[in-house]
């Protein structure tokens, strides 16, 4: 089977896997959990990222306690603005509550807490598969002008890609299989996303490409990739529609990466 036909087949397999995942009890449990966290305004998102650029899941003391997690002693708070609402009373009883101002409140990222494991639809990859293929992908990165570095991130970040510095970083402490998948994901960003209009689409495309590339290398990343794509794309029909809309870009990126592989990077 030609490589491009194989990649099209793998994209179809990805959509089927996401459809199965997002009709499962596990997915519904994950959505129930997500619904307990507030959605922050655009202004508060900017405040969060300015104070902690690697933040992923932010909440206050009481919310973390409700999820059996505690903020570690000495952690520095992220400060955001919360509305102060005046309840309707007396003659105003039939009118909606009004915002009478804002106050600063502290919140903390999940990486600043300890406790019970949070629900997730992404299963970290384990095992030693991928060491040799990781070096092959490092060589692909070099061929397209990117340097790959090991790095220790705070929190759950697995990797990142910077076009300005032509650099890809991969978390040094992850398993070889996870590191291979992460490098394939960041390579897809390097190929596809020098500029990004929609982060959710960019993440969907990068993880879908990683799934296809890793499958070609003999590594099944379904346990991680299906949940990751569904999380960013909204799950179910929305995810499948988004994958189909990006199908050509996913296949082209996978073709470029796989086509650039060399048998011996040394």
Task: Describe the fold and architecture.
With 266 residues, the protein is of the alpha+beta class. It has ten helices and eight strands. It folds into two domains: 3-32 and 121-259, no CATH class; 34-115, no CATH class. It has helices spanning 3-21, 25-35, 42-51, 61-66, 131-143, 176-192, 199-216, 222-233, 236-245, 247-259, and strands at 58-59, 69-71, 78-86, 98-109, 113-115, 147-151, 159-162, 167-171. It is globular and about 70 Å long.
Distance between the termini: 29 Å
- Summing up helix and strand content along with how strands pair, one would put the structural category as alpha+beta
Helix count, DSSP H or I runs of 4 or more residues? 10
Shape: globular
- Following the backbone from N to C, one meets helices and strands in this order, namely HHHEHEEEEHEEEHHHHH
Q: How many domains, in number, for the residues?
A: 2
Brief summary:
The chain has 266 residues and is an alpha+beta fold.
């Amino acid at each position: 089977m030609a490589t491009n036909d194989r990649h099209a087949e793998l994209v179809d397999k990805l959509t089927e896997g996401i459809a199965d995942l997002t009709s499962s009890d596990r997915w519904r449990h994950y959505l129930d959990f997500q619904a307990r966290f507030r959605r922050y305004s655009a202004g508060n998102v900017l405040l969060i990222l300015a104070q902690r650029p690697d933040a992923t899941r932010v909440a206050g003391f009481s919310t973390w306690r409700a999820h059996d997690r505690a903020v570690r002693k000495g952690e520095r708070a992220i400060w955001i603005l919360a509305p102060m609402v005046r309840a309707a009373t007396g003659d105003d009883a039939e009118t909606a509550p009004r915002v009478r101002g804002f106050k600063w409140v502290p919140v903390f990222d999940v990486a600043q807490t300890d406790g019970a494991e949070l629900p997730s639809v992404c299963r970290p990859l384990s095992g030693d598969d991928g060491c040799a293929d990781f070096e092959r992908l490092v060589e692909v990165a070099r061929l397209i002008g990117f340097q790959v570095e090991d790095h220790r991130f705070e929190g759950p970040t697995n990797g990142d890609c910077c076009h300005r510095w032509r650099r890809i970083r991969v978390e040094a402490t992850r398993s070889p299989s996870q590191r291979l998948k992460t490098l394939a994901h960041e390579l897809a960003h390097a190929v596809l996303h020098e500029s990004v209009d929609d982060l959710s689409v960019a993440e969907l495309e990068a993880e879908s490409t990683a799934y296809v590339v890793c499958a070609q290398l003999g590594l099944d990343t379904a346990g991680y990739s299906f949940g990751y794509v569904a999380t960013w794309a909204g799950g179910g029909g929305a995810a499948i529609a988004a994958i189909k809309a990006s199908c050509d870009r996913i296949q082209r990126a996978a073709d470029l990466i796989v086509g650039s592989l060399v048998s011996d990077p040394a």
